Amino acid sequence: MLRVLGLLTGWVLLTPLALVIYLRLGGPFMSWMAPAAGIAISVPMLGFFTLAGIAMIFFSVRSLARQADDF
Fold it and tell me: At a CB cut-off of 8 Å and minimum separation 6, what does 36 contact?
């Protein structure tokens, strides 16, 4: 269960990057996007969240691919 939560957390950390791509493609800005937009405005924060999301997904997939010994 913890491995799946790590995978989901990784995808959530990639949300600001997805928002930047969405807005660069011409998508309309909606008020519920404001929390992710606050992170996406700051380039260092956007970079950190992107790298952390990729790392979370990498380690979660790696641990899910291993044989589970914790029954």
Answer: 15, 16, 19
Look up residue 31 and give its two tokens: 């008020």
Closest CA to 13 of 69, 70, 58, 64: 58
Average pLDDT rounded to a whole number, residues 45-60: 94
Token pair recorded at residue 51? 């790298």
pTM exceeding the 0.90 threshold for the entire prediction: no
Q: What angle do CA 7, 49, 34 make, to 5 degrees?
A: 105
Q: Please report, in angstroms and rounded to a whole number, the separation of the first and last CA atoms in the chain.
A: 12
